[in-house]
Amino acid sequence: MTGLDSMEAAFAVEVLLLDESAYGFLVSIAGAGIVAGSLINALFAKLLKINVLMGFGVIFTPIGYLIFAFSTNFMAAATGFFLLTFALSFANTGFLTFYQNNIPVEIMGRFFTVFGLVEAAFIVLFTLAIGIAAELIEIRLGALSYF
């Protein structure tokens, strides 16, 4: 997702023809999605199982990206942004809860350090790949090549 941030901005400005204030509002809608998802997670924390949290997030985050990538106007883009960040809050909660329940406390710090290093390497590689794809092909297709 980090690799797609600049693609999202370029897509919103170049393809959807949004000005800076409209794009800023779009980003605010994404923030509202995170907040809404987090509130639902907090309210139903005792009822939602880890596999449901991760499954919902893993399925609906890419659907949100696809809605955004195929959007032709602000409302469609906003719907995609809201859905992807809403679902992302479920995925993050599920994955972090899974880690906390399954990794011994004694090695948790080392595990997250190694995991963070691997994650950072993949972020750099995916950002590079998406940037190259955007230069070689259309922005909309470059964003979709991530999937």
From TrEMBL:
Alphabetically sorted, this entry's keywords are:
Cell membrane, Membrane, Transmembrane, Transmembrane helix
Its main subcellular localisation, reduced to a broad class, is membrane
Q: Which GO terms describe its cellular component?
A: plasma membrane
**UniProt subcellular location:** Cell membrane
> SUPFAM superfamilies annotated for this entry?
MFS general substrate transporter
Is Transmembrane helix there in the keyword field? yes
Q: Does the keyword Membrane apply?
A: yes
Mark the transmembrane ranges: 22-43, 50-68, 74-99, 111-137
Provide the membrane topology annotation: Multi-pass membrane protein
Identification of the protein by name: Major facilitator superfamily (MFS) profile domain-containing protein
